[in-house]
Amino acid sequence: MGIKQRIEKLEAGMGLKNEPRVTIITIDPDGISKEDSYSVEIFPELWAYAIRGGPFTEEEIRQLREDNKSEWEK
Fold first, then answer.
1. CA 66 to CA 23: how far, in whole Å?
2. Measured between alpha carbons, how far is residue 45 from residues 16, 70, 71 in Å?
3. Which among 13, 15, 26 is positioned nearest to 52, based on CA atoms?
4. How many CB atoms neighbour CB 50 within 10 A?
5. Which CA distances in Å does 21 have to 15, 35, 53?
6. Does residue 61 sit in helix, strand or coil?
7. 48 with 40: CB under 8 angstroms?
8. Distances from the Cα of 42 to the Cα of 13, 18, 34, 68, 71, angstroms
9. C-alpha angle with apex 57: 6 to 44, nearest 5 degrees?
10. What pLDDT is attached to residue 48?
């Protein structure tokens, strides 16, 4: 079992994955964010962070990009 699976198992055991999702979408002006399962680059410099509710799923990432596409293209 890899470290990612261990972390997810611990989170599930602590009930973190059962919390409501809290997502913060913001600009990363310094360009220091690194993409992982809790922080996702939606578009260049625009990032989404999963603060509670476990890591983002692939479906959530796709939906974030789709939902914010029209706002970013303005």
1. 15
2. 28, 15, 13
3. 15
4. 21
5. 12, 18, 4
6. helix
7. yes
8. 29, 24, 12, 8, 11
9. 115
10. 92
pTM: 0.66
Residue 28, number of CB atoms within 10 A of its CB:
14
**How confident is the model at residue 16, as a pLDDT?**
62
Residues listed for the chain: 74
Please state, in angstroms and rounded to a whole number, the distance separating the CA atoms of residues 64 and 4. 22
Is-contact 49 26, C-beta < 8 A?
yes
pLDDT of residue 71: 67
Q: Which two tokens stand for residue 23?
A: 């997502």
Q: In the prediction, which pLDDT does 21 show?
A: 80
- Helix H or strand E segment including 27: strand 22-27
